[in-house]
TrEMBL record:
Source organism per UniProt: Deinococcus irradiatisoli
SUPFAM superfamilies: Periplasmic binding protein-like II
Homology family: Belongs to the bacterial solute-binding protein 1 family.
UniProt superkingdom: Bacteria
Keywords in alphabetical order: Signal, Transport
Pfam families assigned to the protein according to its UniProt record, in alphabetical order: SBP_bac_1
The protein, known as: ABC transporter substrate-binding protein
Residues spanning the signal sequence: 1-22
């Protein structure tokens, strides 16, 4: 992760001339995969269209670091950033700092998006942000290696994944000692919260805290899910997996050194790039299920909100409407495999040609499991950090799944006692 953020100015084409009313708008964008470049490109198109200038603020890779930086800016009521890129779990935490877009963005534009995402972006009747792209965890696999080792389909259960990964890993390591069966996001950060919620939900172990705010994590199925994941470390997954976020996992898979990977849809377009050693040999499926459970994918995705402290709110709102509109969402889907939040785009032939799995896995994206940011409100960040730390302890063999969920339940009760 880069220690310092970077500003890139994007100005309108000289042929347009500088309008008397032109303003400069600063947007904070992520930098995972192609995120930053696609944000720059979209912002440049808006600048050319309007005659305004856009500055792109490059945010830290890790969501936890990004949130901390944003909170500092917003607490200071800084006007340096006009438009923020917000994680789907942040609206409840940051709502007071953002302009209510209800009435400022036409209802037809709002209603074109998935209802569940608009609901997540709405806090006490206030539309905090507009959806930009949605996400859900998926399983990537090497189609050539499955065929080589006699498998006709990707794994349906975690036990099948472990067996397949071990067989393929053992075979490939005869000529490539760096080869791993399975890579995922095992670092102690928000990404681990996402991965571990998928394990637990797929085992039938709930969602940490239920919709009513009840703490549900201390149960045998949740403990079994964490023990299962811990068994992968050092067997089908490198010991170093406990330090991986999205990009290190993608790097290993894309360089041809893993059979399976859990990641977000953005990795598809990069995996099909000219520099990818696995181009043309990648399959995508729903994540596996636990014993007697169902596949589960954590709901991810990012939104764009306008700061209350912006000095150019009208232009900032116009930029948000432009970037979250169907034309820009289509470009991002085709060029970067970022999932649209506008339902009609899932019937777009160009998008489906570029991302075949968007159609076959539509149910995965529309029924993804939400992290408990709704019921835990402004305490979500504390809840997530407590959860990922407990999971990290299990992965690093510091405690068992049963001990971890019991201790976590007590820790969450203390957080709840301070009000959520």
């Amino acid at each position: 992760m880069k220690k310092s953020a970077m500003l890139i100015a994007l100005t309108a084409a000289a042929a347009l001339g500088q309008q008397a009313s032109a303003v400069t708008v600063t947007i904070a964008c992520g930098s995972v995969g192609q995120e930053l470049q696609l944000c720059k490109d979209g912002a440049a198109r808006w600048a050319k269209k309007t005659g305004n200038t856009v500055k792109v603020f490059e945010s830290p890779n890790l969501t936890n670091d990004r949130l901390g930086l944003y909170q500092q800016q917003l607490a200071a009521k800084s006007s340096d950033i006009d438009v923020y890129q917000l994680d789907v779990v942040w609206p409840g935490l940051l709502a007071q700092h953002f302009v209510d877009l209800k009435g400022k963005v036409p209802a037809a534009e709002v209603n074109a998006n998935f209802k569940a995402i608009i609901a997540a972006d709405t806090v006490n009747g206030k539309l905090v942000a507009m959806p930009w792209f949605t996400d859900a965890g998926v399983l990537y696999y090497r189609t050539d290696l499955l065929k080589k080792y006699g498998y006709s389909a990707p794994p349906k259960t975690w036990a099948e994944l472990a067996a397949m990964a071990k067989k393929i890993q053992d075979g490939e390591q005869k000529t490539n000692k760096a080869f791993a069966g399975y890579v995922f996001q095992g670092k102690n950060y928000e990404g681990l919260t996402c991965d571990a919620l998928e394990w637990i939900a797929s085992f039938g172990g709930g969602s940490i805290v239920d919709d009513s705010g009840k703490i549900t994590i201390n149960n045998p199925k949740a403990a079994a899910a964490l023990n299962s994941a811990a068994s992968w470390v050092g067997t089908i997954s490198p010991k170093g997996v406990t330090t991986y976020d999205e990009e290190p996992a993608r790097g290993i898979f894309q360089s041809g050194n893993a059979a399976f990977m859990r990641n977000w849809p953005y990795a598809w377009a990069l995996g099909q790039g000219e520099d990818s050693k696995v181009k043309g040999n990648i399959g995508v499926s729903a994540l596996p299920a636990g014993p007697g459970g169902q596949p589960a994918a954590t709901l991810g995705g990012w939104q764009l909100g306008v700061s209350m402290y912006s000095k150019n709110q009208d232009a900032a709102i116009d930029l948000v409407r432009y970037l979250t509109g169907p034309a820009e969402q289509k470009i991002r889907a085709i060029e970067g495999s970022y999932n649209p939040t506008i339902a009609s785009l899932y019937q777009d032939k160009d998008i489906l040609k570029a991302n075949p799995f968007f159609g076959s896995l539509l149910n995965v994206f529309t029924n993804a499991v939400a992290r408990p940011s709704g019921p835990t409100k402004d305490k979500y960040n504390q809840v997530s950090q407590a959860f990922s730390t407990a999971v990290s302890d299990v992965l690093n063999k510091k405690m068992s799944g049963g001990a971890a969920v019991a201790q976590l339940s007590a820790n969450l009760a203390r957080i709840k006692g301070r009000g959520w």
